[in-house]
Design goal:
binds heme C, 2% strand, 9 helices
């Protein structure tokens, strides 16, 4: 650990990882991304490993990309068997990599193994500060301060937009923390206007529903399609009581989906594959609807649109044996009069945020006058 200034520095030092970062050359001069590797890779690798058509889908144009996906990193701090070293080892390099390997291998090895993938040579932060797979990752600095940002604010600015450190946190996040450093639920995601911590805005500041961090949140929470009561966060997520609650920030993105309540009614077993949901009760995945042969769209795409029309989740009426002979839309109110009007429209009441409905409430309402 290098010398840090004053009490602040001591505090930063206390929580940094136990694993000392050995230095190559002089103790304070590890080979690092900003100072050495970024320009080396720009010269030797970017010609093939940049842009939308990067070779092997691997880009060397930023630190995070050069490390590879966090779930399957191309480089692991201290590991001489890291994939990147194998690929550019002159002894085994393929034709694509012979020339870059000769130029870059030794330096890259110094970076990965003794340099532990240092991001920069800083008088303030440890080299692992930008590596999500490193115990020194900056997220853990905030966590170890009980998610209080005030120390970060002292250098990065009260608004975290740069301050005297001249490095803005909001280049990568959309953080809105109070001046005392204590976050609220909408400090990292959501929108104080609606009082809901659900995106938009997403963690990176996105507001368009085509961004998977935003997706169909608002459609569910505010019932844009006027088909049901608002869907609670808890149908799809564990909702943390506090920022530091278990299950909230203890893994890296993407956010976890943990279905319960309405989503699993009638023995439904919902699945999320990162793009679409299948078998959710709400979209016709319950035991009574899952075998409906005329349902048109029971696997909605999270960032899609126009997926909740009449006939999507179940037929009009469903074809599963319970609607024998000749019933046609809009002849539903005869038996489902608490759910639909005689014209075939869904009945809802109350203001948007406190709307109620017999439709998509977990119960099949036949010959009822009101719903639980
Ligand atoms: C002439 C084009 C070219 C250059 C220059 C080049 N590569 Fe590659 N690289 C490829 C191709 C093509 C592949 C995929 C097939 C293969 O391994 O040859 C690849 C694959 C890789 C992989 C494997 C990615 C994975 O996810 O498994 C790594 C790591 C890699 N290159 C690193 C580098 C580094 C580091 C440099 C610069 C020192 C570099 N490459 C320079 C063309 C290139
Ligand atoms: C004593 C001042 C100081 C404090 C306190 C501080 N930082 Fe920094 N930080 C800097 C400076 C200066 C840089 C720019 C690089 C350098 O010179 O070290 C930086 C860079 C960074 C970077 C690298 C970003 C990039 O793209 O270059 C991250 C991430 C970061 N700080 C996170 C934090 C977090 C999180 C906290 C609070 C736990 C924090 N910092 C507290 C001064 C500080
Ligand atoms: C160069 C991009 C970058 C910069 C600059 C940056 N971060 Fe991060 N930060 C990340 C990444 C990547 C993650 C990990 C996201 C994940 O996979 O969970 C992260 C995670 C976090 C987390 C955990 C919650 C979350 O949103 O994922 C906090 C808190 C955090 N950063 C605070 C800061 C602070 C404070 C600063 C400025 C002092 C800062 N970051 C600057 C890239 C950055
Ligand atoms: C209908 C299911 C559903 C409901 C209800 C729901 N979410 Fe989500 N949420 C998702 C999906 C799907 C994702 C995308 C996960 C991914 O990125 O892989 C997500 C992602 C998120 C993210 C991460 C955003 C990002 O930037 O990556 C946050 C935060 C979040 N939800 C909070 C909430 C909160 C708070 C509520 C209630 C106010 C809520 N969600 C209600 C399905 C839901
Ligand atoms: C320091 C930034 C931060 C604050 C403050 C914060 N969140 Fe989150 N939240 C995140 C991140 C990052 C994720 C994605 C976590 C993941 O990848 O599992 C997330 C995800 C979620 C999710 C989706 C489920 C999950 O855990 O993945 C919900 C729901 C949620 N937050 C609700 C809340 C509530 C309620 C509060 C206030 C008690 C809150 N958040 C405060 C950063 C924050
Ligand atoms: C997002 C999926 C979805 C869409 C779209 C949908 N439904 Fe439903 N519908 C359901 C589910 C799930 C049920 C099962 C019973 C429940 O939970 O209310 C249901 C039940 C019903 C019932 C039986 C009465 C009841 O409340 O149980 C009627 C009638 C009905 N829907 C009519 C319609 C009409 C008319 C439309 C178009 C305006 C429509 N549905 C669109 C999911 C949907
Ligand atoms: C003659 C009475 C009758 C009419 C008319 C009727 N239904 Fe039903 N519906 C029922 C009965 C009975 C059930 C089964 C209730 C149970 O299983 O608890 C049912 C169940 C349902 C369900 C739940 C899934 C299932 O198959 O059990 C849906 C959805 C549904 N009806 C939609 C409709 C729609 C849409 C219309 C109008 C096109 C309609 N029904 C017209 C009597 C009727």
């Amino acid at each position: 650990m290098r010398a840090l200034q004053g009490g602040l520095a001591v505090a930063l030092a206390v929580c940094s990882c136990s694993k000392a970062r050995p230095r190559e050359g002089t103790l304070a001069q590890p080979v690092s991304w900003e100072e050495d590797i970024s320009s080396l890779f720009a010269a030797q690798c970017n010609s093939c490993h940049s842009g939308a058509t990067a070779a092997a889908g691997y880009r060397t144009t930023s630190y995070l990309e050069a490390l590879g996906p966090t779930s399957d990193p191309v480089a692991t701090a201290g590991d001489p068997n890291s994939r990147v070293l194998h690929v550019i080892d002159p002894a085994v390099a393929d034709q694509n990599h012979q020339a870059p390997a000769a130029a870059a291998f030794a330096q890259t090895q110094e970076w990965v193994v003794p340099g532990l993938l240092s991001f920069f040579r800083s008088g303030i932060h440890e080299g692992g500060i930008m590596n999500p797979n490193d115990p020194e990752f900056h997220k853990y600095l905030v966590r170890d301060r009980n998610w209080n940002f005030s120390e970060c604010q002292s250098c990065h600015g009260t608004d975290l937009n740069g301050g005297k450190a001249a490095v803005s946190c909001n280049d990568c996040h959309a953080l809105q923390v109070g001046s005392d450093g204590v976050p609220t639920c909408t400090s990292c995601h959501g929108n104080s206007q609606t009082q809901a911590p659900a995106p938009p805005r997403s963690l990176t500041g996105a507001t368009s529903s085509s961004d998977s961090g935003v997706g169909a949140h608002q459609a569910h929470l505010f019932g844009h399609f006027v088909l049901s009561a608002p869907i609670a966060c808890s149908a799809c997520h564990l909702v943390p009581a506090e920022v530091g609650s278990k299950g909230h920030l203890d893994t890296l993105r993407p956010a976890e989906l943990t279905f319960s309540g309405l989503a699993v009614a009638d023995s439904a077993q919902p699945m999320w594959n990162g793009v679409s949901c299948s078998n959710t009760y709400c979209h016709g995945g319950g035991a009574k609807l899952v075998n409906d042969t005329v349902a048109l769209l029971q696997t909605p795409v999270w960032t899609g649109s126009s997926q909740v029309f009449c006939g999507a989740c179940h037929g009009l009426p469903p074809q599963n044996g319970r609607h024998p002979g000749g019933i046609t839309y809009p002849d539903c109110a005869r038996c489902h009069g608490a759910t639909v009007t005689t014209g075939g429209a869904i009945i809802v009441s109350g203001p948007p945020e406190a709307r109620t409905s017999c439709h998509i409430n977990g119960v099949i309402d036949v010959f009822t006058t009101s719903c639980p």
